[in-house]
Amino acid sequence: MTLVDNALRAGLDGMPSSLSDELVERMVDDRRRGWTNPCKTQDADAIRRVDRAQDHGSLWRPAFVRDTEKILHLPAYNRYAGKTQVFSFRSNDDLSRRGLHVQLVARIARDIGYALGLNCDLIEAIGLGHDLGHTPFGHAGERFLNDVYRDRTGRWFFHNVHSVRVMDRLYGRNLTLQTLDGALCHNGEYEQRVFELSGLSSFDELDQAVENCCELGGAAIGHLRPMTLEGCVVRISDIIAYVGRDRQDAIEAGLLDEDAFDDGLGGKYNSWILSHASVDIIENSYGKDRIEMSEAMFKEIRRAKAENYKKIYRSSGIEGEREEVMGRAFALMYDYFLRDVLDEDRTSFIFRHHIDRIERTLAHYGKTYRWREDPHQTVVDYIASMTDGYFAELASKLFPDLKFPRRTYINEVC
Q: What is the pTM of this model?
């Protein structure tokens, strides 16, 4: 049990839960006059790596609507349903999967973007596609895969960087620069009070940014800025979407009580942050060429996220013996499939379930999967694509002595 911080709670209670009358009046007047946000990304400004006639926007399928549809039909999008958000070994259907998370991000960002007069189709595309490169087992899996990849190649793995690879390279769907940039820059681990645009305007610049992230790691990741206001809105919405929902999941999983958090709101904090943060961002960003929030809201988001790390992510996630086993599983899987790629063992799972499928997909678009050129990247592509269940079943099959963690069912935690 945690005692409520009364000063903190009073501060939260004092934050506005609705837009000011002045701003509402201004917004109504702007809409009456047919105002258009000059910073809105226009469909006509969509930039694709290849200028193909079939990708041109139309009245009923504008450019960024096409991006959303391309994303929805990716195998990687379907696999969101098999990737848990935080609690990978809790067999409880009420806990968030990554598929729900990206929908929440897109919904929150669309609400904010609509109020600000931004391109909601672009927002939806970024929101739904931003985690396509995520590993199984959430951020713990991302850490394990990065550790083994970095140990063997000196390069870094980040899910946001890999999301760009999934959309741009692995499936050859020719998504727009704006959508890919939004996915690259979405990383919700780097909160800011003011989001200003990067000025990026070409695929050459995007490719260089991706390479910098792989080579330099956090030194490059921490400096990423979206090229559009739509990307900025998705980035802050990513934090808003998980900071409260993860608390609800921790309580639902039986790991924490409702009174475990300093603000005393428990699972109700999710509703509080969704409404109050959205209002704050709209109030402080309307009519500006940047996205920003008040100093008070910025401090609150940082505080809430830090409390989540202390009480959820570092205390209730994969830890101790389980973390050691999981780290070993990633290393064993990586080395096993690297050998199969180098030996070109076509009977291997990595060929039958990954390389052959990607090759067939890319052949449809007249492209090839250059898996021989970088075997390590090919293994990373495969492991990152796995769902939690697929990884667990395969690891147990290939390494029966591993003692892979089993799921904990709800009747065992209640």
A: 0.95
